[in-house]
Amino acid sequence: MAPNDYLLTLMVFVPTLGALSILLIKAIQPFLKRSGREIPVTFWRWLALGFSAVPLLLSVLVLQRDWIPGWVVALVPEWVVAEPGFVPGAGAQFVHHFVWIREFNIEYFMGIDGISVTMVILTALISFISCLAAFGITNKPAGFFVLFLLLETGMMGTFCALDMFLFYVFWEVMLLPMYFLIGIWGGPRKEYAAIKFFLYTMAGSVLMLLAVIALYYTSRPMPGIALALVDGTAAEHTFNLLRLAELGQAGLFAGADPILGVAFTKIVFIGLFIGFAIKVPMFPFHTWLPDAHVEAPTPISVILAGVLLKLGIYGMLRFNWSILPDATKWAAMGVAVFGAINIVYAAFVCMAQKDLKKLIAYSSVSHMGFCLLGMAACTPQAMTGAVFQMWGHGIVAPMLFLIVGVIYDRAHTRDIEGFGGLADRMPEYAGLTGFAFFASLGLPGLIGFIGEAMVFLGAWGAPTTMGTGFRTLVMVSATSVVITAAYYLWTMQRMFLGKFNEKWKDLNFTLTLRERLTLYPLAVFALFFGLFPLPIFELINPAVHLLVRIVVGTPSA
């Protein structure tokens, strides 16, 4: 096998190796204490950061080789750079494929394409930054980083899995670490927030599991589409997501027997869609998110906003849009309506917030609505905008939560109205906050503008085959631009302008090196990709355009 064949497996399981290493060292800690040796808290932090850095470094190798700076090439072995990088439009790449559980035709099948490549890179980047931000964790740091690294494995594996069963395993792997990270290291209502997150996600997982089982047992060979394991063994059914997509596009599932008198594809689509919509989160399944964000420690809020919410959109694209294109056309208008509700409703809710973290949480609900609207319109521009919005929000939202963490670590409050005049005492912090707010509200030249503008333009021209009324939804959703600007500017006014609250006169107003190392890289990405989005477009466009052709060219259910 070529070195590239192991790349994704390493990116997925190196964090697991890190978690096991921490557990092993923790197990021998009592013996070290007896000999008079103590393991400092900083050891756990740097060990976890080192293991989290490996996927980030490996993600550089995913890119085309001519994108990698020469000084980076000089640091890695020649056999590594001799391997080709990701080629847009070439299908699944960096594939690692072998039979796992033969009795049920389950395979270990890892690979990435244009839909997942940016998400893999984003996961590696945000996980590393979040791990660095977690250096402030002092309560049970070893346990925190064990769960954190397992969570990174689950997220990375979900984006890389091309076997439906393997995808579900990684999807569930994320659940328990996140539950404990919120429930142990969270705020005053951490238990409530953790169990609410767990119950919502588990309910969605049950629906998803039923849909997965239905797809597996309905799949069968068709003329020109043979179902065989990677070793050539013939199979009656398959979990292979690529084969399932071929079967769905060939009309197998559209012709399957109805369930309770309802078309098979509609029932399965709804089961999958609700499971993924809870993770997005989509109205009315969104209420777990503000509680989880408010109670979660800052590094976990960063992961939650930067990566976990994208898994819902990615799952819809990988399952609903790819495997059930006929049902996608049937549901498109409904998805668009819920997307518009997300955008406008959550923006209005932001106006009423006094807790800065809850405001940012609801803004995430609003911004993920753009992904739903763009996917539903299913034009090349709208779909590209939706996928780019995943990337853009994954850069800006972590920056916003890190900004909340900066002030909370000092004042131990997030009450917007409790501050005032901070711009005079914390000009650097005020500048970074203003930059992040403007990037989030979609100021031209910053990363938030690209995805939203493309979704609006693409949805305006949505074909009638996807439903009528898209232009009305675009006009309704466009009101959020004004509302978003209003709540961000009003927040800036209350926190940074006016008279300084002398209550905070003894605070340390200077950002630490760790805070700068987490905030400034995200600011650079937000500016660079706002001005030069072409590198992302080149990665995603071929896969996005193919997905549009699949859905638009399929008869409605």
What would you report as the Rg, rounded to the nearest angstrom?
Answer: 23 Å
User: Quick one: biggest sheet?
Assistant: 2 strands, antiparallel
Count the DSSP helices: 23
User: How much of the polypeptide forms β-strand, as a percent range?
Assistant: under 5%
Helical residue percent band: 55-70%
Mean pLDDT: 91
**Class inferred from helices and paired strands:** mainly alpha
Strand line-up in the sheet with most strands: 1-2
Describe the structure.
With about 550 residues, this protein is mostly helical. The chain has 23 helices and 2 strands. The chain has a two-stranded antiparallel sheet with strand order 1-2. The mean pLDDT is about 90.
Write the layout of secondary structure elements.
Layout: H1 7-27, H2 29-34, H3 41-60, H4 70-73, H5 78-81, E1 93-101, E2 106-112, H6 117-133, H7 141-160, H8 164-173, H9 175-185, H10 190-218, H11 241-249, H12 264-279, H13 288-295, H14 298-323, H15 325-351, H16 356-377, H17 380-411, H18 422-425, H19 427-441, H20 447-460, H21 470-496, H22 513-531, H23 534-552
Antiparallel strand pairs: 1-2
Helix pairs in contact: 1-3, 1-7, 3-6, 3-7, 6-7, 6-14, 6-17, 6-22, 7-8, 7-9, 7-14, 8-10, 9-10, 10-12, 10-13, 11-14, 12-14, 13-16, 14-16, 14-17, 15-16, 15-21, 16-17, 16-20, 16-21, 17-19, 17-20, 17-22, 17-23, 19-21, 19-22, 20-22
